[in-house]
Amino acid sequence: MSQLNPASIPLSLYIHMPWCVRKCPYCDFNSHAVPDGQLSMDLEQQYLAALVADFETQVGMAQGRTIHSVFIGGGTPSLISAKGYQWLFDQLKGLLAFDENCEITLEANPGTVEHDPFKDYLAVGINRLSLGVQSFDSEHLQRLGRIHSANNALDAIQQARQAGFERVNVDLMHGLPQQSLEQALNDLKLAVEQGATHISWYQLTIEPNTVFFRTQPVLPQDEVLEEIQAQGEAYLKANGYINYEVSAWRKEKPSAHNLNYWQFGDYLAIGAGAHGKVTRPDGIYRFQKTRLPKDYLAKVPAEHGQMKRIEAEELPFEFMMNALRLNNGVNSEFYAQRTGLELNDLDATLKQLREKKLLIADVNRIACTEQGHIFLNSVLEAFL
Ligand SMILES: C[S@@+](CC[C@H](N)C(=O)[O-])C[C@H]1O[C@@H](n2cnc3c(N)ncnc32)[C@H](O)[C@@H]1O
Ligand code: SF4
What we know:
- The protein is 37% helix and 22% strand.
- Helix 2 (82-95) links the parallel strand 4 and strand 5 (98-108).
- It has 2 domains: 6-260, Aldolase class I (TIM Barrel, Alpha-Beta Barrel); 314-383, Arc Repressor Mutant, subunit A (Orthogonal Bundle), CATH 1.10.10.
- It is built from 15 helices and 17 strands.
- The relative contact order is 0.13.
- The structure holds S-adenosylmethionine and iron/sulfur cluster (SF4).
- Keywords: 4Fe-4S, Chaperone, Cytoplasm, Heme, Iron, Iron-sulfur, Metal-binding, S-adenosyl-L-methionine.
- Probably acts as a heme chaperone, transferring heme to an unknown acceptor. Binds one molecule of heme per monomer, possibly covalently. Binds 1 [4Fe-4S] cluster. The cluster is coordinated with 3 cysteines and an exchangeable S-adenosyl-L-methionine.
- Its main location: cytoplasm.
């Protein structure tokens, strides 16, 4: 493994906000219901101060780099006030500069946006919103245990646009319990008509440790799921959206933050359960913060979680698992730059996948073919 040069790798920042008004029955993210559905100002301030203390311990990992993008995810980050974010950004920027055009995304739930108007979030520097809509159908929203109505979701997109957000992602799920093809397509149609500039379109998965896992809902038949996928993709394409990653569709720029993950960039991570990845000259490291908010608040940052080195033999798979999610793959040079390994060492595997017409890999680009994307899991197994 050759020496790595962190300065050549973009550095992002992930911030985790672990609370939600209530827990959705399909969700296995590190999110916890807040008592009374609202975060007290006390708890907000305590948590924001803990985030700053956590960040302070990570500044050294930047090794001279500035912050390329920020993603505030959850949980429900829109439970935190715009004023709280203003304070947080001031503190963080005092420790490490953000790039001039730093993309700052906030995940917002259409049921919590009345806490602060969107323009207040825009005013403090958040320049991209990601709205957790899931569906525009009232019955589906109810089955999903969502706290918002279809009208709240439509309003939220309108309000975001009117407030001046030029970049609005809408998260939608499909393959919902008892969902028909028409209903799934109608959800996409409404997101498009409302002017979503980016759509993250996920098929519902049933995750262990969720209510849906314990009490399985009736999901659409496989043939319906396939039709939803095929017709949904055709619809989005016909409406000018570009599919640049498995579930990501864009009309505007891609999400700089997610792109950095998929291109095997680095990211600091603050907040309960947050995962980070950083490159040092001697290797690549991952870390995860303690998951429960009460533990995160009680412990000093040094006790939040250990750094773990990614072993050289794990790196080909780790790199490809991210890079090959992108429809256009990645620049071939990124492999050596971001793993410290030589792409030539993978020659036999690349040749075999090329012969099966699953992969394109030359001096310029590593990417799956259309067929390769369909069989992504078996392509990735070749790198294990
Ligand atoms: C971390 S969640 C946060 C979004 C925000 N808390 C909300 O729900 O409004 C990000 C997105 O992942 C998707 N998601 C969550 N659980 C899922 C599941 N079991 N299957 C598919 N997509 C899921 C949803 O579309 C969700 O908006
Ligand atoms: S609002 Fe989002 S993060 Fe919270 S429980 Fe629901 S899906 Fe999970």
